[in-house]
Amino acid sequence: MKKINLLFVSLFIVACVFAEGNKIKNVILMIPDGTSLATVSSARWYQRYNNPDKQKLNIDPYICGTVLTHSSNAPIGDSAPTTSCFMTGVPSRAGWVSTYPTADPANDIIPMDPSMAYQPLMTVLEAAKITQGKSTGLVCVCEFPHATPADCASHSYSRGKYDRIAPQMIHNNLDVMIGGGTTIINEEGIKYLKNEGYGVFLNDIDGFRNYTGDKMWSLFADKDMSYDLDRNPAEEPSLAEMTAKAIEKLSKNQNGFFLMVEGSKIDWAAHSNDPIAMITDMLAFDEACGVALDFAKKDGQTVIVVVPDHGNSGISIGSSKCSNYGTLTKDDLFKNISQYKCTAEGLIKKLRRADAANISRIFVENAGINLSEEELNSILKCEDYSKSSLSDEERMKGSKLSKVVAKILDSRTCFGFTTGGHTGEEVFLAVYDPTKNRRTGHITNIDINSYLHSSLGLKQSLSSLTGEYFAKHTDVFKRYEFSINQTDKDNPVLEIKNKGNKLEIRPNTNIVLLNGKEVKLKSVIVYVDRNETFYLPQSLGKLL
Questions:
Q1: Angle between helices 344-353 and 275-299 (to 10 degrees)
Q2: Minimal CA–CA distance to 217: which of 248, 168, 180, 271?
Q3: Does position 174 have pLDDT exceeding 80, yes or no?
Q4: Does this model's pTM top 0.85?
Q5: With contact defined as beta carbons under 8 Å apart, do 492 and 527 qualify?
Q6: Which of 3.30.457.10, 1.10.287.3610, 3.30.70.260, 3.30.160.270 is the CATH number of 470-543?
Q7: Mean per-residue pLDDT for 441-457?
Q8: 453: pLDDT strictly greater than 70
C-alpha cells in the first residue's frame, strides 16, 4: 500500500511539474502592418527565386487560420481601431487609440453603448503589467507614438495627437521601447526615463547593442526608421536584432513578459504601391518572427501570435498591364524586381542628393532601369524635386517624387494594385502555442483579444480593470470640492481639495501631486477635452 501511495505521490509531483512547465509566462504579438495575404505570397516567391534553398518563411509552419478585422462602424479598418481591438477587445473608430468609440447605430457592426464614448480602455499590455508584474515592451520601425504601438500603451480619440500619446507611453512604465522617433521624445520625457533607471539611446546603435541594464528606450531616426532594403546597418539595427534585444531584456523577469513587435512599414510601402519595399520589409519581419520563434521553442512557456491588423493596396501577383500574365515564368515575374537595390523611398533620397544630370544613371545603377524620355521628364516636373533643371513654372503642381518614382519602379513588374489605401479582406493568422489552447480557423479581432487575455492568464476582465483604473473624475471625487484649471488648454489641471489637503492631477502622466509631493501611479491619467473629463484610478479618492 505504501508503495502504491508513493507511486501516486510521484505521479502527482511529475504531473504538477509538467503542468507548471507548460504554464504560459510570455506572450509575443507580432503585427505585420497592412499585410495582405498576397504580400506574404510575393515575399515567399521573391525569397524562393533569389534563394532556392529557402522555400518557406519562418511563419509558414504556424499559419493556422484567418482573422476578420474591422472598425466599430466599418468593415475596412485602419491600424488604430484594429490593433485597439487586439489590445482591448473593443473595435473602435478610424483613428481612435484604445478608446471606446462614439455610437453609430445605423452602421455599428456590433452595438456600441453611447454612455461609454471616449472612455479609455485597459489594454492587455497594461493589464499584464499592473496585475501580474510582467515586463512589457514594444518594437517598431515607425515613430514610437504611431497608431499600432500607441494602441498598446496609450489612449486617444485621435491617433495624430502625439503630444498626448507620446508622454502617456513614456509614463506607462514600459520596460523596453525600441523604434523610431528621436525628434518626438522631449527633454522632459528623457529626464523622467533616466530618473526611473532607463538607459536612453538616441541614434546610438553602440549604446543599444552594449547596454547591460534591464530597462531601455532606444530610438533611431527623426521619425520612422528606414525600409530594411535601404537600411544602413552601422546606423540602424534590423527588426530581428531589435526583437532579440527586447526579448533579452524582458525575459529576465520571472513573472514573464508581453511584447508587441510591428513590421510597421510594410503598410507604408503598400500605400505607396512599392512592391520591393513591401516584399523586403515582409521578409525582414519574418526574420524577426524567426528570432521570436527560436526563443519560444527553447523557452517552452511562450505563446506567439502573428497577425496583420488589416490588408492594404489590393496587391496581386499578376496584372492586366502585362499581356498573358497568367503564363509568365518566374523570371518574367521576379527577375526585374530582384535587381532593385533600394525602395522608392531610398531611390528618392539618392535623387535628392545628386544633380538632375545623374537621374538616369541612378536608375540604372540602383534598379537596372533605363528611363524613357517621358519618365525622365515626369521626374523633372515633380513639384517637390528641388534639384530639377526646370523652372517652378515648368513643373507640375501636386506632382510628387514619391508617386512618380514608385510608378516607374512598379511599371517594370507584373504586380497589380487596386488602391493606395487599406482593404477589407481577412488577414492570415499564425500561432505558436506549446499548450493545447492554440487558436485555429476563422476568427475575429475580438477573438484575438480573448486569446491574448487567456494566454496571459489574466484573472480580471479588461472591462473591470477599465472601471478601476480609468474612472471618471466626477465619480471618483464626487464627495469633494474640485475644479479644472484650464489656463493651459493643452495641459489642464484637475484640483481637488478636502480638509486642508490638495491634490493636483495633470493628464498624460502617472504622477500626481498631493500637497506638493509626487505620488506615482500604476497607470497613466487621460484627459478628454471633448467631454472635459479626466480618467484616473478609483484609488485616488482615498488619498484625500
A1: 120
A2: 180
A3: yes
A4: yes
A5: yes
A6: 3.30.457.10
A7: 98
A8: yes
